[in-house]
Design a protein that fits this description.
The complex is a heterodimer of chains A (192) and B (88). Chain A has nine helices and no strands. Chain A is an all-alpha fold and 192 residues long. With 88 residues, chain B is mainly alpha-helical. The N and C termini of chain B lie far apart (66 Å). The chains are: A mainly alpha (192), B mainly alpha (88). Chain A binds chain B through residues 8-9, 12-13, 16, 21, 24-25, 28-29, 42, 45-46, 49-50, 53-54, 101-102, 105-106, 110-112, 115-116, 118-120, 123-124, 127, 139, 141-143, 145, 147-148, 163, 166-167, 170, 173-174, and chain B through 19-20, 23, 25, 46-47, 49-51, 53-55, 57-59, 61-67, 71-72, 74-75, 78-80, 82-83, 86, 88.
Chain lengths: 192, 88
């Protein structure tokens, strides 16, 4: 592990390449879902990596590099990108939390085989319809696989808030994908 | 010495902890209690299985594409350019 203050520029870049650059796919995936715009996501990815590189001396070797990178990404998004984006945030009031996927499908497709017919673009668009704070929580958890305490640190929210956002985000995503699957004829709607 | 009594939970408690269980965020004691409940409960087991399948489906559908090569090159070039501007 490369440590210490007397790093040459080359050492520093090498350490950054080894530690941070393998996470470029993750950074870009999260940037795409935060910005919901391919061009903004590319710019945000580059800005994040440049900022991380310039402040790499502040990163403690061996600590959680992904959480550190995501924190920079999120801060850059909300301070530099969010306000100038044309697409407004979605109102939280649209977030349902009383939807039960199991109750909806248990009689017709209890194993959820209809999922297999839903393509990736549809899932990504459904995630993009979630309000900012729910979308970022779901992406960090369900796409990137971060723990509740890591997401709490990155999003500066208590763990309880992370859990409740994740719950509501999953329910909202399930409801959207279920409605879509019914509309497409992949599954029959439950008769109430 | 007799072993400590095992924690018993009902369906409502199991469902309350469904996501924390699937996310691997429970204490060992509670995780084992839920695992025992699921092994014996024909109502909760399929619901947990469906929810686990949903989370796997979301992850599989959202991780298909990597960084496009032009962006990867752009990031590398930006780092090199930045390094040259900064005093070593």
């Amino acid at each position: 592990m490369v440590t210490g203050l007397s790093l040459t520029a080359e050492d520093r870049r090498h350490a950054f390449e080894v530690e941070a650059l393998p996470h470029l796919d993750s950074i870009h995936r999260v940037a795409l879902r935060l910005t919901r715009d391919a061009t903004d996501a590319e710019d945000l990815t580059q800005d994040t990596m440049l900022k991380a590189f310039r402040s790499f001396h502040l990163y403690r070797p061996g600590s959680n590099i992904r959480a550190w990178l995501f924190t920079i990404l999120r801060h850059t998004f909300f301070t530099q990108y969010r306000r100038r984006q044309r697409r407004p945030d979605v109102d939280d009031a649209e977030m349902v939390d009383d939807f039960s996927l199991y109750r909806a499908v248990q009689e017709v497709d209890p194993e959820g085989r209809f999922f297999e017919q839903i393509v990736d673009d549809t899932v990504l668009r459904a995630i993009d319809d979630l309000p900012d704070e729910f979308r970022e929580t779901l992406v960090l958890s369900d796409v990137e696989g971060l723990r509740y305490d890591e997401i709490a640190e990155i999003t500066a929210a208590p763990v309880g808030t992370v859990k409740s956002r994740l719950f509501r985000a999953r329910k909202a995503l399930q409801r959207r994908l279920y409605d879509y699957a019914v509309e497409m004829g992949y599954i029959k709607r439950k008769v109430e | 010495m007799t072993p400590a009594p095992q924690k018993e939970i009902n369906c409502a408690e199991a469902i309350e902890h469904l996501y924390a269980y699937l996310d691997g965020e429970l204490t060992t004691e509670l995780e084992l209690a839920i695992r025992r409940h699921l092994a014996a409960c024909a109502r909760c087991f399929p619901e947990f299985a469906l929810e686990r399948g949903f989370l796997r489906f979301v992850q599989a559908r959202t991780r298909l594409r990597g960084v496009p090569d032009p962006l990867r090159r752009r990031v590398f070039e930006a780092l090199f350019a930045d390094e040259r501007q900064q005093p070593g």
